[in-house]
Amino acid sequence: MRSCNDRAVSSPEHQTHSHAHAHGPAAPVSRHLRKVIAAVLIPFAAAVVVSLVVLWPGGAPGHKPSGVGFDQPTERATVVRVEQVNCADVHAEQPQQPTPPQGQPPTGGAAKGKDCQQATIKITSGKDAGRTFQTVVTPDATRHYTAGQDVVVAYSPKAPKDLQYSVTDVDRTFPMWVLAAIFAFAVVVVGRLRGVLALVALAASFGVLTLFILPAILQGSNPLVVAVVGGSAIMLIALYLCHGLTARTSVAVLGTLASLLLIGLLGSLFIGWALLTGNTDDTTALVHGLYPDIEIRGLLLASIIIGSLGVLDDVTVTQTAAVWELKEADPSAGWRKLYGAAMRIGRDHIASVVNTLVLAYAGAALPLLLLFSIAQSTVGTVASSEVVATEIVRTLVGSIGLVASVPMTTLLAALVVSADRRGQGAPGPGAGAGTPSGGEDATGGRSGQRGSQGRRRKR
Fold this sequence. Notes:
12 helices, 5-stranded antiparallel sheet, alpha+beta
């Protein structure tokens, strides 16, 4: 597989110049070490492929929609007209609320004599396309409509005909596609070929998630097993596609795999020890109600593993690249020196990554934290509640795996580079001034050997 590096290598003279003045592709390790790494990763990759075939769900299982929440069928619609009407005339007037204390604004629904909005909605998709219905929006509603606005409507077949459709949300398809296009453009402009391959890897990851992980869980397969198999497939596709089929990438794969195993073990231990059920919101309860065979605890553990995978890739690739670059800068360095230098880089990486992960989870749970703050609950009460404890376990287990990935991956990379059978520090006969001593050209051949033998030695 071609590396994500987009520099072309055309001639021996160009290769020597590129090696001396630019950061070219990582020098490949010896054939012996490649065989050792392959002996570990090829059986692992084969096991992942076999597991994908065995567990492949063949699509999500069908079920009869319940008409509740997210399980309602939805269609697209458009607001064709908005009129101002008296709330009492459309029976949208709510009971009068108690008089609030002096200095506070009144609460409750539409006051007597207030104007409401009556929107006429036209369905534009599905079997009832062209049908219209009306909905009333009170003055205190959080969302108001304008003519021409696209919306999403839910269909309840058991309701009376006039009440079968109701507006559930606005249609955000266009702005989402625009934002995605801007993101893709920025990635390609800055990342060039590497950015293109990163987008392909992202699409492949979404494919594994939507075609394998989610349907397999809905079919009743063990969520933990599905997450491990699917996460491993995503890891192999993303890392090798974006960073090339090299020993350096293989070391990052091994470090990521070891960290995922640690996260799985710790997550399983503390989910059971803390007696977490995983059923902490209406969405989870609805999924469990529709598919009773789903193991909710396993679903929680699977979410921890998949959520940690993306950050793990970043950490392991960065640490492996650091070790390789340090070895290129000092070919005589032993594994201890390489490990110490790379760990100084890794400690800064740990601090930033852990802070990022914790803040990401805190931001997602911010409304929940606000509710506990309003209730003036103690820290102990908040932390021990299942909703918050679930997020704490999710955050800390993932962070432990991230922290552990740095020394594990760094040590593995340092051992692999230092165990190479190539000579270290001694320039080969006929080494040119533009080639580092003991180094390799961009294709992996020894520079000195190429100078004395008049040809490149393929590794």
